[in-house]
Amino acid sequence: MYIYADILVITNIYVDFLLIKSAQIMTHSPLRTGKACLGAVFGGLSALTIFIPKMSAAAMIAVKTLTAAAVIYLAFGYESRRLYFKRLFIFWLMSFIFAGVGTAASGMFGGKMFMSRNGVIYADFSAAALVITSIAAYACIAVYKSLSDCSEEGAAYTVTVSDNGKVVSFRAIADTGNTLKDGFTGKPVIVCGRSVMSELYGTIPDSGHFAEDYSPTGKTPDVKWRLIPYHTASGSGLIPIVCPRDICIKNDETGEIFSADACLGAASFENDPALLHPKILL
Fold it and tell me: For position 160, what pLDDT does the model report?
């Protein structure tokens, strides 16, 4: 079986991008497309190790481990040891599944479509087969995402927000119905009471007195407010949001702590818990 370097690299870039997206979705991590592509390209180029002499099992594991670690770092960066190794584990797990399926298929087809060497799989796929397998892979990821999001419905959390030199904590519950996102950054919005927002930022702007550089207290000119539309069963309107510096979320039942890349939205309710979508949990 002939191995073409261009097909090898392009196919592995494609597969590594799917693996990175799997790690992102399964850990609910923020991910920039450019960084995901950078990690995928590095992983794709590492597939050229298929051309070197056959490595021992120990050497192959070491090379694959270092490659995976570099791919995750390039794609997601390093926020904390827990998050880094969680993403790395998911990436590894999905890689093993892909390698296992590829090796099994290689045996079934007598090596005519697949070849495995030094932990790298070369697949002689047609364009149609690649499209079909991609659709199947994304379908599996979508099903997992849907099930994992629904499993957290109604869970109780304590949210701690640090910004503007202050720290505020408040109660929140998971609600998959809160699909509110900031159209500018794409970040999900945690909807909380206006009093919570006031503790952090002072007076909250409304749609009648609003500007991008609004500074209600005169002491926080760097606070950037935006108005975004919302729609609920009881009506629709505009809600002021801001993106705080740091958000920490604790599961009240398990004690597990997450970081979140999200915005805060000031709602009219005061005594009810805030609402967050489970997918913002990392």
Answer: 93
